[in-house]
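Narrative summary of target 7.
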Amino acid sequence: GFACYHVYPATADSYVAVGALEPGVWANLCRELGCEDLIPHQFSPDQGPAIAVLTAKFAAVTAGQWFERLGEQDCCLTPVRTLQRCNCGLPRDANARREARAMARRA
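Modeled conformation, tokenized:
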């Protein structure tokens, strides 16, 4: 995969999804992270070094903190949501929860 389109682990068992496929968005992300040297390597054949650098950067704080810092910038990243961490409005009653899970499986 590409460093510009990758999921990175952050602290507190959280993850950051990056979808910076457009060159300008990739450049913005790299500048915001202080990794300007990665800009020309967006689609280089060897993505290992870029992924390693970004993995180290994103490991510094939680995905939520990254989103607070960069979410309003043109960087195309988001915290990865899990059912365990989201408040997705599932009903509290056990029968209604079973019905909601069954509907989700059919979708």
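Residues 36 and 97 are 47 Å apart (CA to CA).
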